[in-house]
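Just curious: can you write whichever protein you like plus the matching structure tokens?

***
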Amino acid sequence: MADLSREGHRQRLREQYLSGGMDNAPDHHLLELFLSIVIPRRDVKELSYDLINQFGSLEGVLNAEPQDLMNVKGVGESTAVAISSIKKLNDRVIHNRNKNITHIITIEDAKKYFINELCNETVEKIVQVNTKNNGKIINKHIVGSGTANCCDVDVERILQNAMRDKSAYVFLAHNHPDGEAYASANDIDFTFRLKRIMDSMTFKFVDHIIVAGEQAEPIIHAELFEKYFKEKKS
């Protein structure tokens, strides 16, 4: 016989969701609702708590690797795949926004493009985009990746990509997964070193943009570097 109390609780969660009442619900309630659909014949309230406690937050649960999820008691392969696929689906939706961005003409265009590209990344990545004279995107390259707060990049690789694509303009961007859209001293030094190199090339280095979540800030067009260089001289 079905557990009427459990079934009634699940039905109430679904009705609450359908009526829009989940918008302000605690994270564990929303996760519980999802788990009740993935695991239909079990009470999953405690499991939702266990997952959030294990990974620190709802975001931590959704960013976890399937193998790590399966280390939590009660999470099998199907459940782990279902949970981790939420982020993959969301990432795809966000990346697909760039299908409608064919040209980068302004810094605002660049910020929008790179936010779509990097906002959900959990490790640092450096992305290079090369464009024609009219701003039409020629190609995108991942030129560096690393840990959550460290990313190495090969300058020679950036230059080769630009030459191979017969670029007119070059944009770079990288993300701060757990930080702010604020350039570090190393970011600024690297940016202006690369700019000096490209000043002698046939293509122009336009900007290096820092992305953190839904925020993005350019370095060359920002006032930050002026403050930084004044501090270095003093």
Notes: The chain has a mean pLDDT of 87. The CA atoms of residues 62 and 83 lie 6 Å apart. The two ends are 78 Å apart (CA to CA).
